[in-house]
Design a protein that fits this description.
Elements: H1 3-7, H2 34-42, H3 52-61, E1 72-79, E2 82-87, E3 91-95, E4 111-117, E5 120-125, H4 127-131, E6 148-157, E7 160-175, E8 195-201, E9 204-209, H5 211-221
């Protein structure tokens, strides 16, 4: 048993946050397991580490930088060699990779199959196929973001909910109107009808996806 299992529990080894092989694993994941819930409640009874209260007192007392009133929160992620962004409000959750169940009879290259998310089967779509992106890995955004590799994003739009496998997640960014520019053809490989601009993030060009074009395309791609 490693240090992570000792501190946290079986969910990092055989549960939702591990290999997902636990025989008691309910449809909703470890969140519905009594053992997980008891361990979680125990976090409130822990003694804070030394200096914790003083550190947060200092942080909360510091002057806060002014926020752009018209700024939009976006989540930055990577598909193949392209860094992309979509409004954070469109993301319901980020989950570890889960089995994709193929659907016989459907021949769409963009529709990968169905994924079980909290007991609901959602269509899993290849964003790389829809956007026509190449596969080689991109140059990573420089240090400064807590990157998470190999995840599935559950997104919701006007045309329903979808699961999108992503290669890497950089985190959220408050995108001010003055940061966004029209995407030059030579910079972004994303088809222009899926893009509503680009912005620079730590030296890397990030394409902003047009959700009004993206979600209808996801729906069409299930049978296309």
């Amino acid at each position: 048993m490693n240090a992570a299992e000792t501190e946290y529990g079986c969910w990092v080894r055989i549960g939702s946050y591990g290999q997902s092989t636990c025989e008691r694993l309910p449809e909703g994941g470890c969140r519905d397991c009594p053992q997980f819930q008891v361990k979680g409640l125990g976090l409130y009874d822990r003694e804070p580490p030394e200096g914790y209260a003083g550190e947060w007192t200092r942080i909360l007392a510091e002057a806060k930088p002014p926020l752009e009133q018209d700024a939009t929160s976006v989540l930055v992620f990577r598909i193949g060699q392209e860094w992309l962004a979509l409004r954070t409000a469109r993301f319901e959750e980020i989950i570890p990779p889960r089995p994709i169940h193929t659907v016989p009879g459907l021949r769409s290259r963009a529709f990968l199959g169905l994924v079980n998310v909290s007991g609901v089967l959602l269509p899993c779509m290849s964003l790389a196929e829809i956007l026509g992106l190449s596969e080689p890995a991109a140059e990573a955004i420089p240090a400064g973001s807590a990157r998470i590799a190999g995840r599935m994003a559950v997104v919701a739009g006007q045309d329903g909910r979808f699961v999108l496998p992503v290669d890497e997640i950089s985190g959220t960014h408050r995108l001010a109107p003055g940061e966004r520019f029209q995407a030059p053809v030579t910079v972004s490989r994303t088809p222009r009808h899926f893009s509503c601009g680009v912005f620079a993030l730590r030296g890397t060009v990030v394409g902003v996806l047009d959700e009004d074009a993206l979600f209808p395309a996801l729906t069409r791609s299930i049978t296309g």
